[in-house]
Amino acid sequence: MTKTKGQTRLPDGLIGLFLMTLLIIIPLSAQGQQAKIRAVREIPLAGAQDRPFFFKPFILHLSPAGLLISESGENCLKLVGTDGRLKMTIGKQGQGPEEFDSPMGLDLLENRIYVADSLNRQVKIFNLEGKLLSSFRTNIMPVHLVVLAADRIIVSNRPRPFSDKESILYCYDARGTLRWQAVNPFPSPNKVYFSFINEIFLKKDSGGNMFLVYKYNSPQVLKIDADGKITGKIQLDESYPLNRAEIPLESGKKQIAMICWNVAHHGDKFYFQVPEKDRDGDFAPGKEVLVIDGNGQVVEKIRFPQAIRLLATDSSTFYVINSEDELYAYRVDQE
Questions:
Q1: Fold (CATH) for 37-332
Q2: Domain locations in the chain?
Q3: Burial class (CB in 10 A: 0-12, 13-18, 19+), 33
């Protein structure tokens, strides 16, 4: 070692050795943080004589009463036991009190089923026996829906381009009074691109918060309280795969990144369904689900034997609707 003006300088050989050691240690540390890869095994749906099938299902929701599915193609809700047995059908096509026109988002709170009756521009509330308790009209076409309290019914909107008055989230009380609206849409001069980049999913936790997940372009989750205030942003880590494709527009092709095909939430974890590319290069349902923690880190990769469109889970059992709109149940293999 040599000293100059009170400083100690390491020989060049030692510096090189130190840098080589760092290069070895850093990859090894990163490998130790890699997500676990988990497989699943199918659980037979013993209560179903035939494979349960749904026509254009929009939401698959796991509840203590069973699996609730909003079947937009049949304009009804179906309650299915976790054994695959159909327990109840609610509603039919129409504009009447107990009828639907494209039911979409749904949620449960205190044994009440809340449904976004999209094309009828209503929210309808049923008990667990399928009896209509109440309903109210909305000034938007509701899509996704979460209920944080009896007077905090939040629905998502598909805002119109070039409108500076429309938001993505609208909150109503049980009488249908608008309490607040929140989250401005991302702007775009192209209507098609605008609709893509403002497509979202809504989930909630047990603490009175909800989460907004963007389907395209924005790899983050917004945490929002019951008053519509954004209280946190969860950024997905750099290892999260972004599937990109080009979409044709009037002004030419534009690249877009698909974050997830769909998403589930349980406890403090998110379950992102990773899309794949089909033969034409378009997005399609994939076979892999990434488990994301509250910091945005990918902690597990769960691989299914088939592509899935919808997912509900209690973290150990996974209920999925595949790309053929059929219901399956799986359990994650233990290590």
A1: Neuraminidase (2.120.10)
A2: 37-332
A3: exposed
